Amino acid sequence: MFPTPIQQTSPLTRISYKVALPLSIVLWLLPLFAVLMTSVRSIADINAGNYWGWPKEWMLIENYTAVFTRSNMGRYLFNSVLITVPVMVASVALATLAGFALAKYRFRGRLAIFATFIGGNFVPFQILMIPVRDLTIDLGLYDSVWALIFFHTAFQTGFCTLFMRNFIVDLPDELFESCRLDGASEWHIFSRIVLPLVRPALAALAVLIFTFVWNDYFWALVLVQSDEVRPVTAGISALRGQWLASWQLISAGSIVAALPPVILFFTMQRHFIAGLTLGATKG
Amino acid sequence: MLPAMLFFLVYVVSPILQSIWISFFDWDGFGDKVFIGLGNYVELTEDPLFWTSLKNNILWLVFYMLAVPLGLGVALFLNQQVLGIRAVKSLFFFPFVISQVIVGVVFSWFYDPSYGLLQKALGLFGMGPLPILADETMVTYGIIAAGLWPQIAYTMILYLTGLNNLNPEQIEAARMDGAHGWKMLRHVIIPQLRPATFLAVVVTVIGALRSFDLVATMTGGGPYGSSSVLAFFMYEQAIFNYRMGYGAAIATVLFAIMLIYISFFLWRMLRAERG
Q1: Closest Cβ–Cβ partner in B3, B98, B239 for A94
Q2: What pTM, to 2 d.p., does this model score?
Q3: Which is the most buried residue in A161, A217, B68, B195, by most CB within 10 A?
Q4: How far, in Å, CA of A31 to CA of A40, rounded?
Q5: Do A99 and A168 form a contact (C-beta atoms < 8 A)?
Q6: How far is C-alpha A184 from the geometric centre of its chain's CA atoms?
């Protein structure tokens, strides 16, 4: 293990480590604490310039209710769910099939297709913007949740395929061979053998995709514009324009918007990290 | 596989080609396209905003890279087995999960010249307010610093995973030979962390070139376009100025820069694939 386990070091080092640890967390998360504190302040506090001191009044319930009653935050949140969940399901499903095909069948152009999926992942969004926007308008989907659902599904499928393919490639070939000898159909192999085995990968992917799509801002600006379809990211920035000085409300709104991915992260932490670090130890 | 490919072709591959095609036209998005060849590119070379954006993109590429050593630093710091360390690690990872829009909002307050926490801290040292986001020379650095926050969290996680998979025998052997601290890190640990470093560099480069959310939420490219980056400049030209052809040309330049990294990554990946 590196660095040397703290238990084996001198008492002085040990104590300073134990002090440094909580201190570093506080420093690291300072901006977040600030938002959290601001979100429970009263407007009087803010007008008086009391941004960082202890709140004079606790307005926890008032501020958070105001976010929902005085803005479309509820609608934005609902839109985000409406967009994120189908994308998550569709792109993971499509990619599992594609990943299986790429991993276990030998056919011409296999590497080229795989390379396209990988390369497509890294493309800057701006090079896609104009044609995707035009396509969306031509399909009559502009300014609807479908615009975002279609685009994100297509785009995320690239990442998911790369991910699933790398996962499935490591499954032993003998397993598939013996099933084929037993007369199992390809579909049977996929649904009875592959799917149960890739369960952990599916979970990891689903969490990642949820976070990516939930946090997207660029496409939310480009493909939709009305309040009825806006997801939370675009909603928050719209609120900033509307509530210039009401920092307590924007803070509360930001926290509400950040909550779903944060909760998901804490409940699915292992999967999440496994997904992100794919390839960090090999290759 | 077919549906996945089809989807990807329609929404990702063909738009790239279309964008490059559009970049040779003068087009407002509604009327007729007028072919002007390299006209847009010639105009770009004479556009000061383009050069500012390009310069800022390079600043992003350079300073964003700090996320790699800093992430390694944090990972080394946290790679211990003490009570509650799992919780600490997740708290450190936290910023990455939050939307960049919210990171932008938070840091705008942090920098606020009249009340921001940074100003309070500077005040303790007797320094006057520093209006970071309103200052043409400092603004880009201010935004990059905000971007580093979640990015360090990301590289830290990559390194923590890498540190978990170190070869313990090699470390013990090196320890026997009297290597420790800095020497051990340089000659034994870092070479073993190569896969993690590679991935960290790749995601950081992509992050740097994709920087849009923070610029859009924190400054909108201002003051006077001084914090613009190619991604934002393109968006501005196409959406607000209705200059689709010009925007496409900017996007093509950005894509060309990214292509260098994409090819490098693909080349490495395919080489590993062939074993």
Answers
A1: B3
A2: 0.89
A3: A161
A4: 15
A5: yes
A6: 37
